[in-house]
Write a structure and sequence with these properties.
Catalytic activity (chains A, B): L-glutamate + acetyl-CoA = N-acetyl-L-glutamate + CoA + H(+); N(2)-acetyl-L-ornithine + L-glutamate = N-acetyl-L-glutamate + L-ornithine
Oligomer: homodimer
Largest interface: A-B, 73 and 73 residues
Family (chains A, B): Belongs to the ArgJ family.
Radius of gyration of chain A: 22 Å
Keywords (chains A, B): Acyltransferase, Amino-acid biosynthesis, Arginine biosynthesis, Autocatalytic cleavage, Cytoplasm, Multifunctional enzyme, Transferase
Low-confidence stretches of chain A: 191-195
CATH class of the largest domain in chain A: Alpha Beta
CATH topology of the largest domain in chain A: L-amino peptidase D-ALA esterase/amidase
Number of strands of chain A: 15
Shape of chain A: globular
Number of helices of chain A: 12
Distance between the termini of chain A: 14 Å
Number of domains of chain A: 2
EC number (chains A, B): 2.3.1.35, 2.3.1.1
Largest sheet of chain A: 8 strands, mixed
Pfam family, one (chains A, B): ArgJ
Helix content of chain A: 25-40%
Structural class of chain A: alpha+beta
Chain lengths: ~425, ~425
């Protein structure tokens, strides 16, 4: 946790409304940090439907293994999250830690262990001493409050400089429902997976399969399109819960993700996922600039995304942005190395609204002053048109600064 | 060109012997730098056999296009190299610049334009004014000296902090032959291609096809196994010339790369290529540590190389090395994200000779003091055993420091 808040942090924090059916409490278990909370427990008063997406790492953490197993049941009663230790690559001890936590949480919430979901974030490879917090889960389960989202977001931070919260409302068949979410970053963030940790809940009444359909679709352009440092975490977990409390207001239960009545809800959910994902990028370790990389005219959407990621993950592009240098030659390099089809002589590049290159060379009207003005902004849009097809994608990243190196040269110790 | 030499630079520079049949001269054309040479001309007294490997970028520079075209002829009479401008993404103007340079060089060397080879390194996207040096090629062709390798290496530097030279000898059918080479780095360096620029020559008498066979095989474990920043350049060019001067000593001409008489030569060439490639890594922008990443026990050699590259290109692994932090959890992360088969519970990791993790968790005998002692060295070996098969690969990289960010946040302007 940094003492300096990212300059890209949202200017205001939304008032997070209570969400019917979810109560939260936090504790300071001293897992790694001093003088802050590091354990969060969410309890659902009634069994909630649950959907999830996880890291595609071949070396996932013990909590990821645990959640994947329980997800098939589709029912959640409680979630326990700790920061300061990822419980990843901890072998048998890691499985013992998740087993102990699940057992204590199930006893505290009065449910089955298969209805518990777990997540851990922090250093990899250190055994997690779950006895540090297993004993407080009883109290947390009793003390949970509905209006505790901001505090919940604080408890799961690691190198984040601000808590990440978002809220949206929608209507399903005329009944108003709410969606609340929290997330944490801020390094080891790369797409093709979920994100570090994010927990989203709604009081809508939606069946698990439909919920999973919504989440799997929504994660593509949001969490799966952000990258801080190209490093995919062992612990990425995004869980979406539906408490169904809106059924009391007459909301008919939705069983199918393609149900037309979900249209407004889907839009609100996708908007919230994008908001949280961008908050993660805006708090990327050492970030001073936010960069939206859009690729158009590629052979396919998938090709466009790979080219956009090649640009967004290039250390030379990211350091140029940090230096406010409109070094579009490095964008050319990143397009060229992506492995996707590109024709140098059809390529055009924009920084903001300024076209800097066209037809395979510098734009005849190139203005250093105009591009420099773009680079001085906090938010920078880079666009590359490949000129070959209709494939399109946008990926979000941040700059690579000396602070990133400083933070990560001495994170563990 | 930096004023501070990399702390990883070789402790001594070899005396570069003359190589029969190759003469070199340099000039200060003021392409970008002040007070240093920036043009190199190599002239072969007799037509030399030539082999080459180039960047796999889809947006190659104009000189790369030019060389690829001439390589099919297999004959070289002169090479012109400039630093300070890559002549990449320069469209029609770029082709005009290579045409003018080739025409002037051919006139100066008294040969065909198809026997000229060109390379440019420096900023991308700026038109290269070849008239700045086309006029001096006459003089350079006349003034060339055989004992000028070190000066030649100096003229092609960009952000390099020291000139990179290497020399080896071998015997072919009892006749002594020499191999000399130069190279430059120091950013936009990633494998799966050649390197930035490297020029190697021998007085051996070897036919072009055999020469190409030797070069293509030799580049795999050397230049194609180094990475400074995962960014593949538009300009990577490695050319190998054979003047054939040793024929005068009775060396029989070799036509086939698999000829048994090439055994000693092949070993010497591979050794020289590895030496130059490692010099490039040791002068990686901002480098303070050299890292050899070895992966064993992968499903195949190709899988091992992809895992090794995933580790070597991870910003979190590289910043940990910079911070002298034996953060092996990040190695686990990089194995997990590589996309290759891995079984967390079979994975073992070493820093130097210290095994830090085994059987999917921290080594029971883990010693923080012992691993820290490894991390304090200039040269660090990281090994990951995947425990699945016999695939093996080694990749070389450097750490990611604040200096890398500083160098690249303001390289262009």
């Amino acid at each position: 946790m940094s003492t300096t808040v990212s300059p890209l942090a949202p200017k205001s924090v939304p008032d997070m409304p209570a969400l019917r059916g979810v109560r939260m409490a936090t504790a300071s278990a001293g897992i790694k940090y001093k003088g802050r909370t590091d354990v969060l427990m969410m309890v659902f008063d009634q069994p909630a439907a649950v959907a999830g997406v996880f890291t595609r790492s071949r070396c996932p953490s013990a909590p990821v293994d645990f959640c994947r197993q329980n997800l098939s049941g589709g029912v959640a009663r409680a979630v326990v999250v700790n920061s300061g230790n990822a419980n990843a690559f901890t072998g048998k001890k890691g499985r013992e830690a998740t087993a102990l936590t699940a057992k204590s949480a199930a006893a505290a919430a009065g449910c089955k262990e298969s209805e518990i979901f777990l997540a851990s974030t922090g250093v990899i490879g250190e055994p997690l001493d779950a006895t540090k917090f297993a004993g407080v889960l009883d109290t947390l389960a009793k003390d949970g409050r509905e209006d505790f989202w901001y505090e919940a977001a604080k408890a799961i931070m690691t190198t984040d400089t601000y808590p990440k919260v978002a809220t949206r409302t929608a209507e399903i068949a005329g009944v108003k429902v709410t969606i609340n979410g929290i997330a944490k970053g801020a390094g080891m963030i790369a797409p093709d997976m979920a994100t570090m940790l994010s927990f989203v809940a709604t009081d809508a009444d939606i069946a698990p399969a439909a919920l999973q359909g919504l989440l799997s679709a929504g994660v593509g352009p949001s969490f799966n399109s952000v990258t801080v440092d190209s490093d995919t975490s062992t612990s990425d977990t995004l869980l979406l819960f539906a408490t169904g409390a809106a059924a009391a207001d007459g909301q008919p239960k939705i069983e199918d993700a393609n149900d037309a009545r979900l249209e407004g809800f889907k839009a609100a959910l996708n908007d919230l996922l994008m908001n949280l994902a961008l908050q993660v990028v805006r708090d990327g370790e050492g970030a001073r600039k936010m960069v939206a990389v859009t690729v158009t005219g590629a052979e396919s959407d998938a090709a466009a995304k790979r080219i956009a990621l090649s640009i967004a993950n290039s250390p030379l592009v990211k350091t140029a942005v940090a230096g406010e240098d409109a070094n579009w030659g490095r964008v050319v390099m990143a397009v060229g190395k992506s492995g996707e089809m590109a024709d140098r002589d059809r390529l055009a590049i924009w920084f903001g609204d300024v076209r800097v290159a066209v037809d395979g060379e510098r734009d005849p009207d190139y203005s250093e002053a105009a591009t420099t003005a773009v680079m001085e902004q906090d938010d920078i849009a880079i666009r590359a048109d490949i000129g070959l097809g209709n494939g399109k994608a946008t990926v979000y990243t941040c700059d690579l600064t000396k602070e990133y190196v400083a933070i990560n040269g001495d994170y563990r110790s």
